[in-house]
């Protein structure tokens, strides 16, 4: 590979800052390996919406679809009515590019402070469905604003959508050491969707005899994330439960500032998209205090997805080295003061 | 008041054991105050279903509706197909008796071990909607078992249902010291339901100028429960988000074995129902190791609801005394060994 062609959506709030550090790291690691990095910035998010009323046009989508991958910072701003940027931009990207696998690893770097007294070893990955469930926008209101208003939200689950996601999750589990897959749902209440998910895991599981499986209700899963996160290896779950679990997982492993994610279209029909789990954090935007590790971790997932595994490993190694330095400082009673650019400097130096 | 008339549903797994301890405590505290306790046991749950195929008949409902309150242990058994007991018994009770307020206090007793390194002061209450949302059973499947299966689940939210619940939550908040109400939802994705919930909180909030409000997405709320639970005073939320949050809340405050709940019909048109947040825990049923504190805490909520406040205070005091003893032992390095009957003994003795 001589070049990779990446669409860059910095987005809102801290998005552009953390993305810039991920790009610096990408430039550093790729130029060492003689790979050209083509970066095409896309102006999407609150600024553009205020200026033009546009979130994501068909032309934007057509242009974006021509790249190898999309690196995204964060989307969302309090100045824009709720849901517009999330649904018409972020979710539209996930749906239009059929990002049915939302991959969210949770790893606690040794020594990183956790709110848990005894976190144990946290090293699991959530395989979240990305194109169905309650995220379809399949609801509505009648008699809005009256005493007789009814608002509905519909969770749509298809055999097609669940099967391909569950199969992917089994593949992920089979390639890991512990080879354990946990389905998280709420099948005692959501009986129709729960039944489909359970049957699918049972069926596809027959093709993966090396993978052991179990099941947890979403409420029980939120308990175990706090009391025994080490029990998890791979979690497969729907769009909303995955959203909830991965934020809690981010919190226990050291903060969502560290949590990376990939929105994958595994077949490559569309570019996959890589973004931190965290949001746009408008309150700290521009202060150079956001931790870019989640963005840099998302870069690692991107490099891996593009098959540039050695570069991915190099960045991951540099991140681990840097996190070990933080842990050493913390152990010495000197909490590491994150600056966005400082972390970027440290990772680039470690490369 | 000379007598109270309570329907007792021990239910499945550890349900009967923990309920028995709550009843012992009730007998002790009420007889001291010259109040008669009428107990009518109802055989509902897995045993009855296996024996008769019945979960909850119209006759059961009619009989239950004649009591002042219902004390419930736990419902659910792995020998019964998922959803049958939960939906046709537990949820049917909540829906038939219009238990629209599901009240779930989270209090961490001083010194009780928490999985959090620094839990701070945990003293909040979740006001969960109990008769709407994704719990309506309003979904279905088409082409079940084929490659074209579609399974849906519909969250139904009505102005009527949301308003009465939100009003109740404001009343709870106004009566507390901090007077702070947090709405938890996911309005950036569930725009129709989220919009209804937000507008309702804004509208009803005008009647409660002393109460401050804020908003969190469900994913952010699961983070703050781990990183800063002390920030919460009253949380108001829908049925599913409430289910998830209260289990996580139970975990951080010392375990769901301590978490009590009330299913209220505040107007008294139907008997309210009091039950631990925990499930039936079939794995430890009959071993006398389940902690009955959640069941006894549910009794406190019941006594309060029935207006027998002094008895409620006495039991709460006895529970606090007992929990302080546990904390003392723990501080001395001797972890308190819970036995179901032993905890009942201790509380009765403290009365
Ligand atoms: C911003 C929001 C729509 C999004 C989601 O709910 O998926 C975010 O929380 C995430 O997890 O990526
Ligand atoms: C058993 C189940 C149906 C129930 C619920 O989801 O409400 C339980 O988890 C609870 O929280 O009381």
Automatic annotation (TrEMBL), chains A, B:
Limits of the Isopropylmalate dehydrogenase-like domain: 5-347
Gene3D superfamilies for this protein: Isopropylmalate Dehydrogenase
InterPro entries: ICDH/IPMDH, IsoCit/isopropylmalate_DH_CS, IsoPropMal-DH-like_dom
Cofactors (names): Mg(2+); Mn(2+)
Record has Membrane as a keyword: no
Keywords on record: Manganese, Metal-binding, NAD, Oxidoreductase
N-terminal signal peptide: none
Gene Ontology MF terms: magnesium ion binding; NAD binding; oxidoreductase activity, acting on the CH-OH group of donors, NAD or NADP as acceptor
Keyword Manganese: yes
Name assigned to this protein: 3-isopropylmalate dehydrogenase
Organism, scientific name: Bowdeniella nasicola
């Amino acid at each position: 590979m001589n070049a990779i062609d990446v669409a860059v959506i910095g987005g809102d709030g801290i998005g552009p800052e953390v993305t810039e550090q991920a790009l610096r790291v990408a430039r550093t690691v790729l130029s060492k390996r003689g790979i050209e990095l083509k970066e095409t910035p896309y102006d999407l998010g609150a600024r553009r919406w205020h200026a033009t009323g546009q979130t994501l046009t068909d032309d934007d989508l057509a242009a974006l679809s021509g790249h190898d991958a999309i690196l995204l910072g964060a989307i969302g701003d309090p100045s824009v009515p709720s849901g517009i940027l999330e649904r018409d931009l972020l979710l539209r990207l996930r749906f239009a590019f059929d990002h049915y696998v939302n991959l969210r690893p949770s790893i606690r770097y040794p020594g990183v402070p956790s709110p848990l007294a005894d976190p144990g070893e946290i090293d699991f990955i959530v395989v979240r469905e990305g194109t169905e469930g309650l995220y379809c926008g399949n609801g509505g209101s009648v008699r809005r604003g009256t005493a007789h208003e009814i608002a509905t939200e519909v969770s749509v689950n298809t055999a097609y959508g669940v099967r391909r996601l569950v199969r992917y999750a089994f593949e992920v589990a089979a390639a890991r050491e512990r080879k354990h897959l946990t389905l998280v749902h709420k099948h005692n209440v959501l009986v129709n969707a729960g039944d489909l998910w359970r049957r699918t895991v049972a069926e596809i599981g027959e093709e993966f005899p090396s993978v052991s499986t179990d099941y947890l209700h979403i409420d029980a899963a939120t308990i175990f994330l706090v009391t025994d996160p080490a029990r998890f290896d791979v979690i497969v779950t729907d769009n909303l439960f995955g959203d909830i679990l991965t934020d809690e997982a981010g919190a226990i492993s050291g903060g969502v500032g560290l949590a990376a994610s990939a929105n994958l279209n595994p077949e490559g029909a569309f570019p996959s998209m890589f973004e931190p789990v965290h949001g746009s954090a408008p309150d700290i935007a521009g202060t150079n205090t956001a931790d870019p590790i989640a963005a840099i971790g998302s870069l690692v997932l991107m490099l891996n997805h593009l098959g540039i595994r050695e570069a991915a490993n190099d960045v991951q190694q540099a991140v681990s080295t840097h996190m070990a330095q933080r842990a050493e400082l913390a152990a010495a009673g000197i909490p590491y003061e994150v600056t966005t650019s400082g972390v970027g400097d440290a990772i680039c130096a470690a490369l």
